[in-house]
């Protein structure tokens, strides 16, 4: 690594450590003394981390409609091309399950910024519904010198679906946000009984999926950075995200919600999901990869050019999916149980997102290492988007030896 890169990384590290201290000091010294148009006479400063315990002790403040305790799940290693890959996957965090809670608040406050902020009428911040990487009290909503002007009132019943990282991210929308609709159903809160759905994703796929879920665009409220709402009856389906694992109920929920899009034809397809015009994680010799796999009977698809319905239909007919690590593999949600997956990865940039979907969906997951710049030669923010090249003879050998 060059000296200039080392210096930049040191500066970034210092900033990451200092920024939370700075924002907490700002909040306690300035914003917590708000008067003017603050709805509480002061900025909220107390953070609630135990939702279930809080409602057990304060029954007049709200109630828990449903909860599911986390259960540790075995997350087996995928079939890896090399021992080094297997070792990298073995060091990923264990999956201890996901704790789920659906709760109800009366006259709650909802503020924008990042994935939003949920506050009760007494000014108590609900931590798990107010996620922020640097801590709740560093949340953008608490950095304002004044609240946004007059709050808007939402009458009737509203569902809070805002989810970290789901803004324009297909994986996090499909795996972390959409299953919240399934939780509402489990909590016996039918979607047609809601007047509004508060969400923080406006990507092309969002409206398509929500409309298929039975949610018209007229009922969708997009969180903005200056959102300031008083919500008469707020239902919050809450669970921690899927970075370390995916539960079976998440996959089942998505498949049930989008059941009309899943083909009932016998699965026979071998698919290569291309990166196409992606700006990161490019396969530098993808044209050659496509040419060779097409000769082996693969159907070449570019999911970025397809609707979600078209992706669901294609992937639900697949017996084998080969693809570089990227959002296209989110469509493993639709593959029939028993289908095989070959995920092509940068050898030094490993995460288990798609292996996690495969486990929950009953798929056979394989990992093949491409070739690329050593991760230590890349800036921290670029490492996860590192480009790679594929050794085509090695890939074909791996497919043959894995009997794929």
Outline the secondary-structure elements.
Elements: H1 3-29, E1 47-48, H2 51-57, E2 62-68, E3 79-80, H3 83-90, E4 100-111, E5 117-119, E6 125-126, E7 152-160, H4 170-177, H5 179-186, E8 196-199, H6 204-212, E9 220-222, E10 228-239, H7 248-257, E11 269-273, H8 286-295, E12 299-301, H9 308-315, E13 318-324, E14 340-345, H10 353-361, E15 364-369, H11 380-383, H12 392-401
Parallel strand pairs: 1-6, 3-15, 7-8, 7-10, 8-9, 11-12, 11-13, 13-14, 14-15
Antiparallel strand pairs: 2-4, 4-5, 4-10
Helix pairs in contact: 5-7, 7-10
Tell me about this structure:
It is a single chain. With 404 residues, the protein is of the alpha/beta class. It folds into 2 domains: 16-75 and 95-243, no CATH class; 259-401, Rossmann fold, CATH 3.40.50. The protein contains 12 helices and 15 strands. A hairpin with a 5-residue loop joins strand 4 (100-111) and strand 5 (117-119).
| Uncertain runs | none
Helix content: 25-40%
- What is the radius of gyration computed over CA atoms, rounded to a whole number of angstroms? 23 Å
Query: What's the N-to-C terminus distance?
Result: 39 Å
What form results from the Cα inertia axes? globular
Count of DSSP H/I helices: 12
Specify the structural class.
alpha/beta
Tally of domains? 2
> What percent of residues are in strands?
15-25%
Number of strands: 15
């Amino acid at each position: 690594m060059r000296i200039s890169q080392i210096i930049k990384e040191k500066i970034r590290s210092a900033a990451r450590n200092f920024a939370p201290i700075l924002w907490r000091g700002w909040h306690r010294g300035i914003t917590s003394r708000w008067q003017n148009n603050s709805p509480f006479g002061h900025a909220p400063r107390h953070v609630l981390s135990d939702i279930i315990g809080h409602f057990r002790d304060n029954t007049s403040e709200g109630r828990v409609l449903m909860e599911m305790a986390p259960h540790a799940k075995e997350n087996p290693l995928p079939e890896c091309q090399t021992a080094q890959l297997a070792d990298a996957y073995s060091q990923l965090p264990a999956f201890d399950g996901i704790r789920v809670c659906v709760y109800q608040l009366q006259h709650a406050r909802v503020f924008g910024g990042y994935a939003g902020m949920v506050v009760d009428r007494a000014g108590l911040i609900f931590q798990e519904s107010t996620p922020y990487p640097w801590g709740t009290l560093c949340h953008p909503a608490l950095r304002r010198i004044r609240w946004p002007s007059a709050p808007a009132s939402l009458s009737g019943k509203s569902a809070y679906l805002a989810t970290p990282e789901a803004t324009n991210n297909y994986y996090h929308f499909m795996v972390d946000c959409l299953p919240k609709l399934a939780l509402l159903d489990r909590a016996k809160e039918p979607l047609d009984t809601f007047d509004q759905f508060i969400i923080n994703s406006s990507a092309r796929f969002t409206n398509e999926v929500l409309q298929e879920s039975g949610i018209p665009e007229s009922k969708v409220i997009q969180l903005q950075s200056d959102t300031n709402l008083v919500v008469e009856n707020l239902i919050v389906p809450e669970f921690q995200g899927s970075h370390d694992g995916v539960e079976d109920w998440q996959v089942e929920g998505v498949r049930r919600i989008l059941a009309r899009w899943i083909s009932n034809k016998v699965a026979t397809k071998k698919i290569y999901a291309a990166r196409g015009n992606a700006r990161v994680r490019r396969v530098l010799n993808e044209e050659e990869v496509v040419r060779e796999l097409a000769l082996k009977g693969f159907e070449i698809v570019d999911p970025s050019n397809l609707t979600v319905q078209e992706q669901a239909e294609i992937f639900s007919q697949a017996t084998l999916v080969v693809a570089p690590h990227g959002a296209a593999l989110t469509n493993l949600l639709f593959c029939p149980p028993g289908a095989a997956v070959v995920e092509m990865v940068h050898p030094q940039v490993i995460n288990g997102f798609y292996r996690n979907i495969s486990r929950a969906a009953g798929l056979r997951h394989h990992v093949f290492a491409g070739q690329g710049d050593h991760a230590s030669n890349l800036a921290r923010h670029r490492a996860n988007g590192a480009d790679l090249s594929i050794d085509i003879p090695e890939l074909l050998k791996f497919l043959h030896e894995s009997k794929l």
